[in-house]
Amino acid sequence: MTSLLHQIEQLRSAFIQELQKASHTKDLENLKVKYLGKKGPVQSLMLELKHSPSEERPHLGKLINDLKEELVSHCDNSLACFKEQEMRQRFEKERLDPALPGRENFLGRSHPVIQALEKAVDILIGMGFSVRLGPNLDTDYYNFEGLNFSPDHPAREMQDTFYVSTDWLLRTHTSNVQVHTMEETKPPVRVVAPGRCFRNETISARSHVFFHQIEGFYVDRHVTFADLLATMDEFWKKLLGEEVETRFRPSYFPFTEPGLEVDVRCTSCKGAGCRLCKHTGWLEVCGAGMIHPIVLKKGGFDPEIYSGYAWGMGIERLTILQHKIPDIRYFTQNDMRFLRQFS
Ligand code: PHE
């Protein structure tokens, strides 16, 4: 009797000790199986009951049953506590606070340079031009020689051009599309050629080793200098606003005759003079000119019959002017704080 009583007490205190160490519902489930399972110690006590004197059996049996119930209720109570605690922790973690500011959802959008480029191309498509894309990697012929650059022209020198081999290079301007197009088509041609250009320059706030240009050109019978001026005027008004004024200054390009520099009245100060226009009241926006007869000839068009005009503009520069961006390097740094400003 004493030994069985002793065992019951021992079992109870061993169980209580283990119960105190439990920290998880899983621990409790294991504990329940360990003590109350078919091969557990409580069951062994029941079996041992057979060996005790018959007059003590009912009393001892009740004690063991009581122990069993006690252990079960301990387990169940703790289990309920643990479950509630775990639930509360989960709720705490997943709690929705309607007072918190919402998380902003950023949609992707095109790069500001591409936005400007697409706007200009769309306008020119509306004016009857069709898009042609030239190769970024091209031969010296299409980038220079076909455009009437003399063999010793400074722009061919290594410091400006990325040569891939003696003959192949990364185009320095979109004008390379001119002779390609003339070789592949018949007049009239009215082409807009947007794309990337490359120049071997030191990267600074004002220049980069790659940038974008849009080339426009038109070749047909009787294309005149007045057509060029009118097209420029119309294009820049459509791009920057009806109030925009254009100004033309003589300039030189080997592939034009005559060549021009096109300015527009400063979009920021409207001509009064400001930092953006360096107090001149005007912004230089593109190079232009009548296509040189030598270039027409190289493209296979008879300059006695056909004439044409062309212009080329830098898109980064245009975007910088429109948005007053102080540094061209912002365009290539992929800083989301900068890019998100252009919707
Ligand atoms: N290709 C010239 C440049 O990169 C721009 C230009 C194009 C000038 C067409 C005249 C005619 O500066």
Architecture overview:
This protein has helices at 2-21, 25-36, 41-48, 57-94, 112-126, 140-143, 176-184, 225-240, 293-298, 315-323, 336-339, and strands at residues 130-131, 137-139, 168-170, 189-198, 210-221, 246-251, 256-265, 282-291, 306-314. With 343 residues, the chain is an alpha+beta fold. It has 2 domains: 2-93; 112-339, Bira Bifunctional Protein, Domain 2 (BirA Bifunctional Protein, domain 2, 2-Layer Sandwich), CATH 3.30.930. β6 (246-251) and β7 form a beta hairpin. The longest helix is centred in the first third of the chain and has 38 residues, at 57-94. The mean pLDDT is 92. Bound molecules: phenylalanine. Phenylalanine (PHE) binds next to β8 and β9.
Could you provide a short overview of the structure?
The protein has 11 helices and 9 strands. With 343 residues, the chain is an alpha+beta fold.
